[in-house]
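Quick note —
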Amino acid sequence: MSKETASWLNTMTLIGNTQYRGTAWHYRADQQGDEPNHYPGPIPVSDVERRLFGWQAVELPVYVRVPATIDTMDGIDEGACPYRYLLREQRKNIAASDDYSDLGMFKEGYRPHQYREWLLHTVATILDSDLGISSAGLLRNRAVAWVEVSVPESITTPEGVEFRPNLLATTSFDGSIATTFKRTCTMVVCDNTRELALSEKGQTYKARHSKYSGFKVAEAREALALVHTMAGDFADEVGRLLDWTVSDSQWDLLLKKIIPTGDSKGATTRALKRRSEINRMYRYDSRANQWYGTAFGVVQAFNTWNHHDRPTAKSTDRTERNMLDAVTGATAAEDTKILAALSKIIGR
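Predicted structure written out below.
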């Protein structure tokens, strides 16, 4: 069972701009308590701070229990054996200040990046009449957090592709994610996310959790070029990918290259099933087939299948997986792999 149950998603995530985008799939009014987690417009900064980030990560010393003598013992265990506690000076535990729940264990040099300071206060510096917080949330028992800034309404390219540019800020207290600010775009037709301008550099800013990482808001803003510049960049990328013509034979070769059959009967069956599902997405599903025969349609088919139809582990919720894929870069890496393979097949 995922930690991100329906109750969690309806209380520990906030969803904005629903007057343009509708409610999230996990919306359950009866599980939201006294205060709904959906907002018709952008989410107020004060609400994110009050409802999600009203606590801090604290550093606690780490002790281990070892055998002891009667003279040195701190207590007696269930087997009537004496024990004592030893301080591990090179280790620290990161816990939540409100209930001291465990978030992560680290070496002495680790420095937690507080959610309010590194995520909320950073993105608040770029909010204006055209930008607002579109979503924010906590995952993995509050060990991972994100704040997303976006424009309220969608943008349409000359080719008719509708999308929303976003700035995604995220960090963690369990060591799974460095503090990261990145530009992404959400495809309106299926609500899946792509990292902007896959071939470009300088679209992501990361800060390690160490004593040498300073609070560099200006540097992060410069590296991201802000959300205002995204529309033209993404429209250019869409146009470039729509100019790539992909034949049926090239598509079939790509499926075989990306999803090879395995050595066992089970692996082969799973690979063929996956190929069939993605092929159906590419040819017949409205979330991808309107761009059939182009590189953009190819990426859209794989991306949409990964986002909506790829099986999840029993311990992982789809929302949790998709969000973590976006913030860790797994989504962008998969898109890049698809385009690299397609480039070799097409020869461009």
